[in-house]
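If your schedule permits, I should be very grateful for your opinion on a structural question. Kindly check, if you would, that the fold set down in the tokens agrees with what the sequence suggests. Thank you for your consideration; the sequence and its tokens are set out here:
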Amino acid sequence: MPPPTFPQMTAAAPTSPFTSMFSAFRAELDEHHDRRERVIKASRDITALSKKMIFSLQRAREVPAPLPSSIVGDITTRLANINELFSSIVPDLQGPNAWRYQRQVSSGVQEFVEAVSFQHYLTTQCLITLEDMQRLVPEGVQLMEDDYLLGLYDLVGELMRFAITGMATGGKLPGGGSRSDELQSGGDIEALKGARKRDVVQDLRELRMRFEGMDTRGGSLGRDVEKKMEVMRTCVEKVENAAYGMIIRGRERPKGWVPEERIQEVVESY
């Protein structure tokens, strides 16, 4: 005979006044993590597109000068894609969230500043202002001064590549004409100084002087600037050394000579 069965009593789950409170906390944390992931993904995509813009801009050879149509078409498409990515995270960067996710979006903004400032320099040989940069991002995305400055630090590296490539392929400093040709000509160098255009080395030295004059102690820039300052100085020194070699050797070379070996080593070294 099977043992008798007895009905089991199911105890009601105890209710707590904190259950609804923690359910709200859970929902809020889930929303936070979803927003954070969206911002991180958009920032990475903006970084990748900005790098592709820079690769295209490095094909330019003159400054200041209009960009070739092939480069313009490429960067116009990239800028449109970047604008769409910024617009997609505008709802996630409203109110206190603009500061909450600032570190997550910062890397993409800095790379975007670097690409746009490089484009602006190639066409105008001037730095783009913070106000002009802010107008290039959708309303609702706040461009922090820190991201703007750190993007300009990175611009120095692209100017170094542009300058050395220009010397390797054209035998002159972009923006200022061929100094070696001027030295070979036997002309009055002092008289030429007033009429000579500003070249990339002069611009890089000006940037270095301005950056070194900034006091970043006690601010949010201190930790990042220390590393970028060292890289910036190295980049300027590389361009100076390449220019010195071109000028000094230019005195012993016939007019029209293009340096190859030494400049090519510098191009490969960076």
Notes: The two ends are 90 Å apart (CA to CA). The longest helix spans residues 19-57. The CA atoms of residues 167 and 173 lie 6 Å apart.
